[in-house]
Amino acid sequence: MHVLSVNVGRPQPNPWKSLEATGIDKRPVAGPVAVTAAGPKGTGAVGLAGDRAYDVRNHGGTHQAVYAFAREDLDRWERELGRTLPSGSFGENLTTAGYDVNEALIGERWRIGGSAGPVLEVSCPRIPCVTFAGWLGEQGWMKRFTRDARPGPYLRVVEPGELAAGDTLEVVHRPGHHAVTVSLSFRAFTTEPELLPRLLDADALPPEDLAAVRKRLDPHPG
């Protein structure tokens, strides 16, 4: 299990939202990249040095500091779409290999690159947006991506450090009190709301996500 590619965004015009730019155009970089905690959402700060989010209302911050997507899933989409998808094509910071990131548990922790590397914690699934759909330019993309239910996880930074392409990915902690995976949580938020009660056990979900789950389950408390 390792990081195949580390990808940092280059700002591009965003004609799909009323924003000046988007950071979805992630490109592989050479050499180590510093990883630090992003801080609260709203500033555009993310975990990797040299990267940032421009839709500050919906992206970036503590719980969306780093985004990971598996090379195996990119390869599968390449075959289905009939086009080349370089690492970073889905806007991911880390393109991984050898591990099913969608079966990672919410709250699972990864150490990247050995004892001096950062520790990242799986926080929530990526939910597709119109920028992602516009960037890919595929007909019905949001529905196709949602139906696939393999979105890749956002991660928060637990311990800072440096990482680089080729670094090992070691799972150093898996929660023992729930079985809520990235894929299951995505399905609960999108196509299978009957799964929402299970998310309450996944206490590492972002606080705003847990609050939204409770509101959907009990829209008229008291």
Tally of strands: 12
Sheet/helix structural class? alpha+beta
Largest sheet: 8 strands, mixed
The Cα radius of gyration reads 17 Å
Order of helix and strand elements from N to C terminus: EEEEEEHEEEHHEEEHHH
Q: Which of globular, elongated, flat, extended, rod-shaped describes the shape?
A: globular
Helical content band: 10-25%
User: Cα distance, first to last residue?
Assistant: 48 Å
| Spatial strand order of the main sheet | 4-1-7-6-10-9-8-12
Number of helices: 6
Assembly type: single chain
Q: Summarize model confidence as the mean pLDDT.
A: 95
Spans of at least 5 consecutive residues whose pLDDT stays below 50 are none
What percentage of amino acids are in beta strands? 25-35%
Report on this model:
- There is one protein chain.
- Helix 1 (71-81) links the parallel strand 6 (66-70) and strand 7 (94-97).
- An 8-stranded mixed β-sheet has the order 4-1-7-6-10-9-8-12. A two-stranded antiparallel sheet has the order 2-3.
- The radius of gyration is 17 Å and the shape is globular.
- Helices cover 22% and strands 25% of the residues.
- It is an alpha+beta fold and 222 residues long.
- The model has no long low-confidence stretch (mean pLDDT 95).
- The chain has helices at 71-81, 130-136, 141-148, 182-189, 196-199, 207-217, and strands at residues 2-9, 12-14, 19-22, 26-28, 33-35, 66-70, 94-97, 109-112, 119-125, 153-159, 161-163, 169-173.
- The chain starts with a strand and ends in a 5-residue tail after the last helix.
